[in-house]
Amino acid sequence: MKERRILVTGGAGFLGSHLCDRLVETGADVICLDNFFTGSKKNIQHLAEKKNLEVIRHDLVEPIFLEVDQIYNLASPASPVHYQYNPVKTVKTNVMGTVNMLGLAKRVKARILQASTSEVYGNPQQHPQEETYWGHVNPIGPRSCYDEGKRVAETLMMDYHRQNQVDVKIARIFNTYGPRMAVSDGRVVSNFIVQALENVPLTIYGDGSQTRSFCYVSDMVEGLIGLMNSDDFTGPVNLGNPTEFSIAELAQLVLEITQSKSEIVHRSLPQDDPVQRCPDITLAKEKLKWEPVTPLREGLERTTEYFRQVL
Ligand code: NAD
Ligand code: UDP
Fold first, then answer.
1. How far is the C-alpha of 120 from the C-alpha of 133, rounded, in Å?
2. Of 42, 102, 249, 279, which is most buried with the most CB atoms under 10 A?
């Protein structure tokens, strides 16, 4: 791959750190920017010796002036627990942070990819979700800071594209999991595996009939890089694994893989928790020749191995 300077915001987070790994491997000059809210230095520690990785501690809400060719804009807490901890800050990160990155992209003529989310579909009334669906989002609920923040971020991307010809790409990422999720992340896969390994009860919110479709992190990273390097295609494009599971099924699979004796307990379902979620990835297959290759069982086994070492 030819020499490029690539900025990854949120680069010390779960997904960002895996993306930095792959980009560093290609020989590109990578700048990992993070404020370490949910990310950690441990996630990128192994890259410390690499000459082509630079780490900047910076809060994306403030402007920053750099010279780069590509920007992957991943900075934003992604777990409901963390994005609801300081909702005003979540909106600022997704709106002001995205404006700052688009301003940078415009000034230096960089290509920019926005890490959007399946949450732009809210609690979807169309199933599976296609990119043409406009969504069903509560604008004033506890998830709105994230859902609406990401929707405005998409709006900004398209407005900078139309108004200022910024070269943009929008990835709508569906639930992604894997090694380097924080033990305290709070999302379902890490919660269940950590609970199972610690032999404490697995906490299913609601009756467990709600569904999600889980994508292993290496598949997601390939999708993001594929989108960034695609020409004449802005998206939005769904990136995710189209195999759908109920949360109760996920709990059983985790118990089986970890051979845990943990019980299952039920907790109340959080407000506005989407009932079902599954990506239609026809567009990604057609435009990016991309689809996930890691089955859930295999990905869960690798993730379990990681948490065994961490705990
Ligand atoms: P994560 O919480 O592990 O990573 C987010 C990173 O952004 C962290 O390192 C955090 O410290 C950093 N960050 C947060 N606010 C910042 C700010 N103001 N300035 C600088 N850095 C900041 O989450 P993740 O799962 O790696 O998600 C990465 C991106 O992908 C997010 O934008 C998220 O919305 C998006 N996404 C992820 C998923 C998923 O399932 N993992 C699904 C949909 C979308
Ligand atoms: N969930 C659960 N137990 C947990 C954490 C989450 O049952 O310990 C449920 C949550 O209510 C949701 C699903 O698992 O229905 C996925 O939650 P997560 O926070 O991973 O991501 P979301 O897709 O809701 O953003």
1. 10
2. 279
